[in-house]
Amino acid sequence: MDAPLMYTSSLGVRKGTWTEEEDFLLRKCIQKYGEGKWHLVPARAGLNRCRKSCRLRWLNYLRPHIKRGDFAEDEIDLILRLHKLLGNRWSLIAGRLPGRTANDVKNYWNTHLQRKLTTAPQRSQERKYNNALKITKDTIIRPRPRTFSSIAKTNVSNKSMNTVHKDESDKETVLNICDKIAAAGGGGGGEGVQWWTSLLENGNEIEEENKLLPNLLHEEYSPPLCMQQRQSDGWDFDLSADIDLWNLLN
DNA sequence: AAGGGTGGCAACCGCCTGAGT
DNA sequence: AACTCAGGCGGTTGCCACCCT
Prior knowledge:
The chain is mainly α and 250 residues long. It has helices at 20-33, 41-45, 51-62, 73-86, 90-95, 102-117, 123-133, 150-158, 168-183, 190-197, 203-212, 225-228, 245-249; strands spanning 6-8, 14-16. The protein has 13 helices and two strands, in the order ββααααααααααααα. Strands 1-2 form a two-stranded antiparallel ribbon. The chain binds a DNA duplex (21 and 21 nucleotides) through residues 1, 5, 15-18, 36-39, 50-53, 55-57, 59-61, 88-91, 102-104, 106-108, 110-112, 122-124, 142, 144-145, 147, 149.
């Protein structure tokens, strides 16, 4: 693209497609100062971009080890399983797919997988369709993740779920999750999945999905290649707040 | 060849949460 | 306790390339 689309907000901040020069400046800045402190990044990098734009560009495009191109079969399979378990928790799903970003997974789901699973209307008709449904805040149940403090995260990811935690609230949170997993059948077998799916409102849809994907939940299954290889390819994946999703998936 | 429709993807928007003051 | 701010997330939009008629 010779002249990327570019415009400027009322605050004078550039928006739109990033140029190669901007990518270079951002990459250099992150290499020098590291990730984080995004409010300082535009000034440090000499970019006329907002902090969020810088963060997004880094996370979705410039970060090392990001995989581009088509999703492998095992990745698709894992997305389907995790989506059944977690819903639209793209960041969590992406966290189990080395090299894939939440945006990638979300886009792939919206453009490839969603249409496979449903007879969704064409995108040009989706707005009408959604308006007709009159979806309101009241009708949507939106489970949100618990965020652990950084120290609790370290403990959870490095050891096990019932290790010592920074403070009682963190410990309580983790133990609550452990209880739920235990109640779901000790973290193994199909019961775990049932516990999760019971959170979803429409059981009929789940049944329909099961018909469409008969092998999704019940067949003998081993971790896909993309997960087995994650250690060797150097991908720094995040296991924080890990509740052993893999066991729940089996 | 032209024009409309569609798919894919990058980027933006608005909201939520936790930390700091 | 109330407020502000940064980080993070999911939903949505806009652009472009390709396809079809």
